[in-house]
TrEMBL record:
Keywords: Heme, Iron, Metal-binding, Oxidoreductase, Peroxidase. Pfam families: Peroxidase_2. SUPFAM superfamilies: Cloroperoxidase (SSF47571). The keyword Iron applies. The keyword Metal-binding applies. It comes from the Eukaryota. Belongs to the chloroperoxidase family. This is 19245_t:CDS:1. Its cofactor is heme b.
Length: 196
């Protein structure tokens, strides 16, 4: 990352709901990241590989660190939600259990306060996928665990934390799918426990 210096968004810059894409934009790896062009660009790529995916539909309620659409700004990070996530740490680290727990807290809260909550398998799947990406990229060199101090920097400031290094090995699709499935399983477990 040495040639690219972190610079937060300017007053006219917009950011996406994805912390990773925002971090890359903050280092100048992604030049255009105002929301519409970004989705347009990504839609175009998706179309090229014959998988018509509307990325605007990827934005969903009950996300980890963004408020629901019903409450207004659903793409800027909400520091209080990051703090709530960090509180779920186990021995100072955020692991699969911590992320699942926060997802569950967020979902229950949205059910209570958001009359327009949209949450079905698609949103559940996307949530699991995002948490999987987080652990597999940011926690790649640390056994799929992330120290809370590092995660706070990544999520709140959308920058790569001091001492963090990009994954030593290429992150393959299978570990990502494997973690995603573990998240889905854990969500079901939490649901079952709640119904008891
Ligand atoms: C081209 C690649 C990517 C695209 C198009 C993308 C797109 C998105 C979108 C649209 C969301 C918003 C979902 C929501 O409403 O909550 C999101 C969230 C997220 N993305 Fe990405 N993403 C990409 C790569 C990554 C990578 C590599 C990571 C690994 C760190 C990552 C981590 C996350 C996380 C943790 C969230 C959830 C944020 C939250 O719930 O607060 N993404 N991404």
């Amino acid at each position: 990352m040495s040639a690219h210096v972190w610079q937060g968004p300017g007053t006219h810059d917009k950011r996406s709901p994805c912390p990773a894409l925002n971090a890359l934009a903050n280092y100048g790896y992604l030049k255009i990241i105002s929301i519409k062009p970004l989705y347009f660009l990504l839609d175009l790529v998706a179309e090229k590989i014959s998988q018509r995916v509307n990325l605007q539909e990827c934005e969903h309620d009950a996300s980890l660190t963004r408020k629901d659409f019903y409450f207004g700004d659903n793409h800027t990070v909400n520091p209080e939600l990051v703090d709530l996530l960090l509180k779920q740490n186990i021995d100072g680290k955020i692991k699969e259990e911590s992320l699942s727990k926060l997802h569950w807290i967020r979902l229950n809260n949205s059910k209570e306060v958001n009359p327009t909550l949209l949450y079905n398998f698609q949103q559940k799947f996307l949530s699991a996928g995002e948490s999987s990406l987080l652990l597999n990229f940011i926690g790649a060199n640390t056994n799929l665990e992330i120290e809370i101090e590092k995660l706070e920097v990544f999520l709140k400031h959308e920058r790569f934390p001091e001492g963090w290094r990009k994954p030593n090995k290429v992150v393959g699709i299978w570990p990502i799918i494997n973690s995603l499935c573990l998240f889905l399983k854990r969500y079901d477990q939490l649901e079952k426990e709640q119904k008891k």
